[in-house]
Amino acid sequence: MGQFTGKTAIITGAAGGIGRATALLMARGGASVVVADVQAGAEETAAMVRDAGGRAEAVVTDCATDAGVQGIVARALEVFGAIDILHANAGITGGLMPKLDTASADFMEVMRINLLGPWIAIRECLPHMGQGGAIVCTASVAGLRAGAGPIPYSASKAGVVSLVQTTAMALTGRGIRVNGVAPGLIETPMTAPLFDDARARGREDRIGQLNPLRRGGQAEEIAEAVAFLASDAASYVNGQVLAVDGALSAQLPFTPKWSL
Ligand SMILES: NC(=O)c1ccc[n+]([C@@H]2O[C@H](COP(=O)([O-])OP(=O)(O)OC[C@H]3O[C@@H](n4cnc5c(N)ncnc54)[C@H](O)[C@@H]3O)[C@@H](O)[C@H]2O)c1
To answer: How far apart are CA 60 and CA 53, in angstroms?
Structure first.
């Protein structure tokens, strides 16, 4: 018996990266997974889960529209008959550099996918979740402090932190927990250009140089935290956002004595 045996999990943004790693891990733990993404890679993730002996259904759709999410929920209920876990994970950066002239439409598209999307997913899943249900949202260290992402991205992820806290409170008495993870710099398709560029210039050792572990993270390391928060092992953890960042967000900028 795995820790997720008999449970069904919906994972958005599961065409690759953190979402795919979470799907594979939860399925290994016995969960039936519904993997959703706007990209066809969701089908590939489902095939990987099945190849490993698990149960998976893919839905290729926009996870930040009412109709898209309602379709995912309907498929989960039709194929697996229940929804126990939601990992609201789909997101975009909207560009990697902070820009002071970001257009309103570009700002709102980041908000739509990163903040409205998780809200729609929570709202649409809740009526089908019972006591013991667990929701995990992917926030970011960029939502905790400045310096880890562009302006709309960071603001949207700060919104996700609030979404976790406020929905956890609004669910008082329902026995459904809502938590989040705040990844640091993780190697996924989202950050691939950064990692590839550093490697091409022989600067791989600079990746993650600002955190005490002195490296970037892997998607599987975030998936482990998501799985913990979604599992009964975290039965008294609620309304929290766990930074999984090698201690990047634990520190203040520090000027070494030699440079003063
Ligand atoms: N990689 C990092 O360093 C890092 C750090 C902090 C937070 N995050 C967050 O982790 C989450 C997963 O990102 P990742 O790093 O695995 O990168 P990723 O690009 O592999 O995953 C994001 C997925 O979301 C999907 N997506 C985007 N818009 C969508 C939409 N409208 N509907 C459905 N799917 C959509 C993408 O197609 C993609 O597969 C994101 O929310 C991201 O902001 C990543």
So the answer is: 22
Instruction: Say how many Å lie between the CA of residue 189 and the centre of ligand 1.
Output: 8
Domain count, the chain: 1
Q: Is residue 251 in some structural domain?
A: no
Whether the full predicted model's pTM is greater than 0.90, yes or no, is: yes
19 CA from centroid of ligand 1 (Å)? 8
CATH code assigned at 126? 3.40.50.720
Q: What is the pLDDT of residue 1?
A: 85
Within a domain: 257? no
In this prediction, residue 217 has a pLDDT band, given cuts at 50, 70 and 90, of very high
